[in-house]
Amino acid sequence: MVQIHFSRFIGRLRDAMPRHQQPFPDRVLAFHSRMHSGTEALGWQVVRWTPLLLLVLLLGGCVTAVPVQQANTGVGQMTAQRLSEIAGYELPASTPEALPEVSAVVITEGSRANVRSGPGLDFPIVAKANPGDTFTVVGKSQDGEWWQVCCVNGSDEAQGDTAWLASVVVEIDGDGDAVPVVTPLFDENLEATWRVDWQCGSERCDVKHCTATVHATAGESGNQQWLQVAHEAQWADDCFPPDSWVFQVDRYTGRERSGQFIDNFLYNYWLGMEPGPATNVFTLDDGRKVVVWCSGPHELEIAEGDGWDTVYQGETCHDVRTGTLVSLSYTKRWLFTGEYQGQQYERAYFGDYETLEQYLVDANYSLYYVD
Questions:
Q1: Is the full-model pTM beyond 0.90?
Q2: Residue 52 pLDDT > 50
Q3: Which of 77, 92, 100, 298 would bridge with 265, disulfide CB 3.0–4.6 Å?
Q4: Does residue 301 share a domain with residue 200?
């Protein structure tokens, strides 16, 4: 689950809205928009942005609407310099590990055994197994109390997937000691750092350019499945207040819990293991090269009220092994639909935009590195 304060990182113009009026997804969006109070525009000192005030400043200042595609934003320039085509690299051959022939037979008497998505009682039940059911063993937990088996005949989502059975409900046929240990993708020591470069292409912005560092750390959560990953954003020279938010991330799959990332590419910090095919190689500051899956263009549109919509257009790249966000770049624009002083506007764009580029600097866990 995402906790509040990620909002401020996504949307500074949204700060004009009272916090209690902002729905949950909006609160998560504020980190990525930095037009803010204290902006001087057209000779007036703006105390607080509102959609109506923005309209007065834009139209009252005789600013002409321009087509969105004519805006020169330069989004993704830093990211593009770090991306290489995958064809220029030789990726390690994927050789499946030879597994011993081991099976698990359910030995519950008169009741069915719970089949879970992970090695612990905190993981959800994905299917039930009848006494006598036999599964192929493909892994075991670090403590030896759970067996990873294939394949599950449960719900549609679980059909054909690996799952887990407790050792107390099965009897092992074969050499259980030879079964490989399945380790979590992430643990409580998880740390990752991103660098952020934000720019405002508007004369109404008091701050035109600012950089930030986002640092993610996990801690002991007391839960076998979910890590509490806290993100802290510090802006250089105090150009904006610090921001913070928390994602819950599955230790074994690497996927963020809320699922907001499905429809909102700004949430895409933790997509989970093998998010997509290898498309590019991203070079980190220290020269290490990460195999990534880049996707886009993505688009997100948010109704701000009083005729205003904000449109985010951007691209993302994720580590192919863990699904960690490696780069994010986008342009954000304000569009107006409605009537003002007798003139009708339809999604009019007046040239004001913000851009953001964010890229991974370091992570203390294994990514898909390549030479």
A1: no
A2: no
A3: 298
A4: yes
